[in-house]
Amino acid sequence: MRKKLLRWAPWNYRFWREIARWCYERSLHNPPVVPALDHFPASAELHSNFEAIRQETLEVALSGRLPANHEIMEQQRTLYEFDRKVWGMLPLRGYGYDYPANQALIPSLLSFLNRHRDVVSAAVSLFPPGKVLRPHKGPFKGVWRFHLPLYVADLGDGRSSCELQIDGETYYLKEGDGFLWDDTFMHSAVNRSDQPRVVLLFDVFRRDQPVWLVGMSWIFLGIAQLWQRLQNMRQRALLRSAAS
Questions:
Q1: Across-strand partners of 90?
Q2: Is-above-0.85 flag for pTM?
Q3: What's the Cα-to-Cα distance from 106 to each of 16, 62, 100, 123, rounded to whole Å?
Q4: Residue 135 to residues 15, 140, 168, Cα–Cα distance (Å)
């Protein structure tokens, strides 16, 4: 009981996460998946420049040097401990906080991010073969999550290695399929193939929020930026050395 009280105390991340989630869910009502062009029109630029983005990103992602997600953010450790398979992650922007050294590795995305500050987060994600992301909910409903798969295995029968389960529905994404959704719905993911799966992840600031929530969202983003700075996240998120 004592551990439970400490875990959910006001000085703990989980306490404020649940309060924020309650506020957003009372005010924003949307389906789990929404049309990308309606809510993230800039996604058309990603599709038009897809080949260059894919080539530059895969050179980095498949180098074997991506840092582990749970080593960048300790809060993600439970997602690693579920199956002990390392989820590779290269942050480019986190809730408005830029990672300049990582952005410079992918020039085509650097240009895009410089022109679209409403893309508050961006990252390269690498799921190893057999990786399972257990069911969970995202913490912040003030953004849309956009998936852009870059390296995905076709498993036949309409299935792919980019498998998402969202609010009880299963989705299979193929390379180049832009997919916009609300990650505060219960969701999970799995790579059932024998090759890594590489996806670009973006968080896009929601413009359909009521005015009072917009202010709350910017406060949330400001706190997240300060936290990353204090945690020296830029250093922890660098590519690993070739020898490691």
A1: 124
A2: yes
A3: 34, 13, 10, 11
A4: 20, 16, 11
Q: 34 forms bridges with which residues in the sheet?
A: 180
Per-residue confidence in pLDDT tens, the chain, 244 aa: 555 555 545 555 566 667 777 778 888 899 999 999 999 999 999 999 999 999 999 999 999 999 998 888 877 777 767 788 999 999 999 999 999 999 999 999 999 999 999 999 999 999 999 999 999 888 889 999 999 999 999 999 999 999 999 999 999 999 999 999 999 999 999 999 999 999 999 999 999 999 988 998 998 899 899 989 999 999 999 999 875 4
Amino acid at site 99: Y
- The answer to whether the beta carbons of residues 70 and 77 sit under 8 Å apart is yes
**Cβ distance 172 to 158 under 8 Å?**
yes
DSSP states of 131-169: -EEEEE--S-TTEEEEEEEEE--EEETTEESEEEEETTE
44-47 long-range contacts, CB within 8 A, separation 24+:
45/112, 46/112, 46/148, 46/178, 46/200, 47/176, 47/178
